[in-house]
Amino acid sequence: QTVPEELQNGGGFGYVVAFRPFGTVSWMQTVVASPDAARYVFRNESLPPFSPYEVKVGVYNNKGEGSFSPVTVVYSAEEEPTRAPTTVLARSLSASDVEVSWAPPWESQHKGRIQGYEVRCWRHDEKEENAKRIRTVGNQTSTKVSNLRGNALYHLAVRAYNTAGTGPSSAAVNVTTKKPRDCQTSLCQAFVHKFYQAQPFYFILFYFREALPGVLYRWNRQSSTSVIETNKTSVELSLPFDEDYIIEIKPFSDGGDGSSSEQIRIPKISNAYARGSGSSTSSACTLSALSTIMISLTARSSL
To answer: Which intervals of the chain form a coiled coil (predicted)?
Structure first.
């Protein structure tokens, strides 16, 4: 930063720039005679990319030289990476997600830093220049690519990048997303099989017509989605009965998720009822009515 005129303390003000390769002893110096100068460029065609230099800047005027700034380390400009990442692998996670991983390129450190990686993903019937691009930061060597079409062939390639640009691309690898589950059939329907209360919880048993890897559910409008992993044809939820609940539930599998069920509202049980008082006939009717609720899970539109 330039020195304000009121602090120059005399005519003939200028700067002395001293610099040396990092780790060496002797300083090189140059004079910048303009008091308004804010930069100096040292040119050396043999200078390797991203070379570290120690730099300090002093001041002078017609009366003599002033003090130098503290020493700082700066780098010459870097080049873009010159080699591609290796060992690129891709695997399908679901009908809409794939995971890609890679190993860093073999590259000499003096060529510059690798600040991250760019993953390109394009469908077999698309042009590569229209590929989806995802950038990672730092040393991360895997990422997930989402919002893909189910049961489709994709190509993926990876390249490193830094401030100078992106390097060469790896060879493309192929992966086919999983086939979406057809949830339009009755096999993907879920039913409230049993509903009962035992202090201090509700117990709700959902029944499925086939075994599913898991169930997603949300038990009120504000809560985040919870996951129950199961390889059975039923799943039981237990919820405290000290508040109202609105339950949504849907199955999921490797091929994707089913659609959310219609909302089921379960009212808060009063303290008196929780202690066992109240009409047993009324309670039986309530449980009977709730146990007949059916949740039909239908498929979302095809990807």
So the answer is: none
